[in-house]
Amino acid sequence: ERMEFFKELQKLREAQPMPCILNLRSENSDYCPYHAAGKNCYLIVGHVESEDCMYGFWVGVSRDCVDCAFTEKSDLCYECIDVQSCYDCTFCRDCITCSNCEYCYDCKGCQNCFGSVNLRNKQYHIFNQPYSREEYLAKVAVLKKQYRRLNAPPPEFTELQKTLPHIAMHGYNNEGCIGDHIFNSKNAHYCFDVSN
């Protein structure tokens, strides 16, 4: 008789949605644990002030981002990892202040780049090669159709990632720091994804 009670209790627990853990001052973000001051988010784990984001991890002060991780101050991003202050970027990683970029790695201050690696303050580049605006738009339209069917990154992009050098630590404004993705820090040893 006593065991029946616990079985019934377990059935009841499994049938009801569980409340989030540490969801503070968020609106319409019921399934976002460790989240604060968010609005209209779904399945975002961690961080603050995100709005209209879904399926992410540590997405902060961002809007309309889907399937992103470690994304800060960005808008309209999809499948991005470790990006900051990006706008309308897709399949990008370790990019800062980029806009309208797709399949980019370690680019900073870039606009309208496709399949590019290690670029700084460039625009209208495809696989690290410059194009005029018109050429870029025409060629990217064809490339997007071609690679979306494959459901994989372009092989040219993958080859660029393999052959070009990678920086030892992503970050800026640091002094005496060891780790990766460290920003505005001092004497941070073996730290990852930290700032200030």
| Average predicted confidence as pLDDT | 92
Summed up, the helix count is 3
Helicity, as a percent range = 10-25%
Strand order of the largest sheet: 3-5-6-7
Distance between the termini: 57 Å
Rg over CA atoms, rounded to whole Å, is: 21 Å
Percentage of residues in DSSP E strands:
25-35%
Largest sheet: 4 strands, parallel
Structural class: alpha/beta
What's the order of the H and E elements? HEEEEEEEEEEHHEEE
Report on this model:
With 196 residues, the protein is an alpha/beta fold. It has three helices and 13 strands; from the N terminus they run αββββββββββααβββ. The protein has helices at 2-15, 133-150, 155-163; strands spanning 23-24, 35-36, 42-45, 47-48, 54-60, 69-72, 81-84, 111-114, 123-126, 129-130, 171-172, 178-183, 189-195. The strands form four sheets. A four-stranded parallel sheet has the order 3-5-6-7, with no helix packed on it. Strands 1-2-4 form a three-stranded parallel sheet, with no helix packed on it. The model has no long low-confidence stretch (mean pLDDT 92).
Q: Which features characterize this protein?
A:
alpha/beta; four-stranded parallel β-sheet; globular; 26% strand; 196 residues; three-stranded parallel β-sheet; single chain
